Amino acid sequence: MRVAILSSSKEIANIAADMYTDLLAKKPDAVLGLATGSSPLQVYQELVRRFEAGQVSFAKARAFLLDEYVGLPSDHPEGYRNFIEQKIAGLVDFASGAVVGPEGQAEDAQEAADRYQKAIEDEGWVDLQILGIGTDGHIAFNEPGGSLFSTAHTQVLTKQTRQDNARFFDDDISQVPTMAITQGLGTISKAKKLVLVAEGKQKAQAVAQMVEGAVSAMWPATVLQFHNDVTILLDEDAASELVLKDHYRAVWDAQ
Ligand code: F6R
Fold it and tell me: Cα–Cα distance between 64 and 164 in angstroms, integer?
């Protein structure tokens, strides 16, 4: 893992956006992985800015979302496909149909998850995946207690995750869906490159477990310790519980 402890959201967004821009310059038809939630928003803003400045094109790329709520109406603004459309997909030049997510309205959610896994596999897996991390250590919607090798699956959300996400649903937890379809930890592990963004004190414990804790289903993000190309971009608050902070700074500065 490469761990960068950075002084501003802007710096975090620039580094992550550089990774997408560099990949698309080398491989215009790359398969991109997109996350929702607050963490990647500034990265998407920076990518949109670069697109508008003619510095990057997504015209030949394809993209897979990490996850989708089950049961929200297809036009719900907090549906992840709609969120991604508003924040990046609809603002750059992706070809029509190039950005896909799990079918949260499918009659059989597990069958939809299996189809989603196959679609990612058929594309030869994701080239570059951006991730956020939940306060309970989830990545995508892989909640504690699941398999570290899971394929795409349906997932019951923890109360903690629903509480955290209530801010997107008028602060009303009863409006937050109880279930999602998510890429599995095994699916995410197949991505060739991963970049995880975390900011704020509320992420510090999960970040410390992910980077320095024992690999365990209790902290799903610890599976990233097995991946050989992961970049973790943190602000000071998110990094505050890391023991080896000085070492990570020295390694990052040496690169
Ligand atoms: C979103 C996702 C989640 C979020 C995580 C952090 O597609 O898969 O794992 O990345 O819940 O959410 P934020 O960024 O809103 O703190």
Answer: 23
With the most atoms of ligand 1 within 8 angstroms of its CB, the residue from 32, 43, 133 to mutate is 133
Nearest CA, atom 10, ligand 1 = 132
Using DSSP's 3-state secondary structure scheme, residue 25 falls into helix
| pLDDT tens per residue across span 34-76 | 999 999 999 999 999 999 999 999 999 999 999 999 999 999 9
Please identify, by atom number, the ligand 1 atom nearest to the C-alpha of residue 161. 11
Q: Which residues contact 82 (CB under 8 A, 6 or more apart)?
A: 75, 76
Residues classed as catalytic: 67, 136, 138, 143
CB atoms within 10 A of CB 246: 10
Alpha-carbon gap, residue 159 to 134, rounded angstroms: 12
For residue 108, report the distance from its CA to the centre of ligand 1, in Å: 24
Measured between alpha carbons, how far is 183 from 95 in angstroms, rounded to an integer?
23
**Residue among 41, 81, 138 to mutate when testing ligand 1 (max atoms within 8 A of CB):** 138
Query: Given the CA of residue 203, which atom of ligand 1 is nearest to it?
Result: 16
Using CB atoms within 10 Å of the CB of residue 205, give its burial: 0 to 12 exposed, 13 to 18 middle, 19+ buried: middle
* pLDDT at 191 (0 to 100): 98
> At 211, which helix (H) or strand (E)?
helix 204-212
Quickly state the pLDDT bin for 174 (edges 50, 70, 90): very high
Instruction: Give yes or no for a contact between 46 and 162, defined as CB atoms under 8 angstroms apart.
Output: no
User: In which order are the strands placed within the sheet that holds 67-69?
Assistant: 67-69, 179-182, 153-156
